[in-house]
Design goal:
This protein has one domain. Helix content is 61%, strand content 0%. The protein contains four helices and no strands. The longest helix is centred in the N-terminal third of the chain and has 13 residues.
Length: 64
């Protein structure tokens, strides 16, 4: 994956709260509080750890 693809995938999961609910995302081991901070703009997604990005890719792939 290219950087742009990764950012688009992460953005899709973080900001599409109808398709990827906080409860659904937490099933993949992502902390709901931290995830909520990304959704509310309190944290920058480009500073996200690799392990979190990989989990978000799993979330994205599970709904495809």
């Amino acid at each position: 994956m290219q950087k742009e693809e990764l950012i688009n995938t992460v953005n899709e999961v973080v900001f599409n709260d109808e398709k990827y609910t906080q409860y659904y995302v937490s099933k993949f081991g992502i902390n709901q509080g931290n995830f909520n901070n990304y959704r509310n703009g309190k944290r920058n997604i480009e500073g996200m750890q690799l392990k979190t990005v990989l989990k978000l890719i799993d979330v994205y792939n599970s709904k495809q």
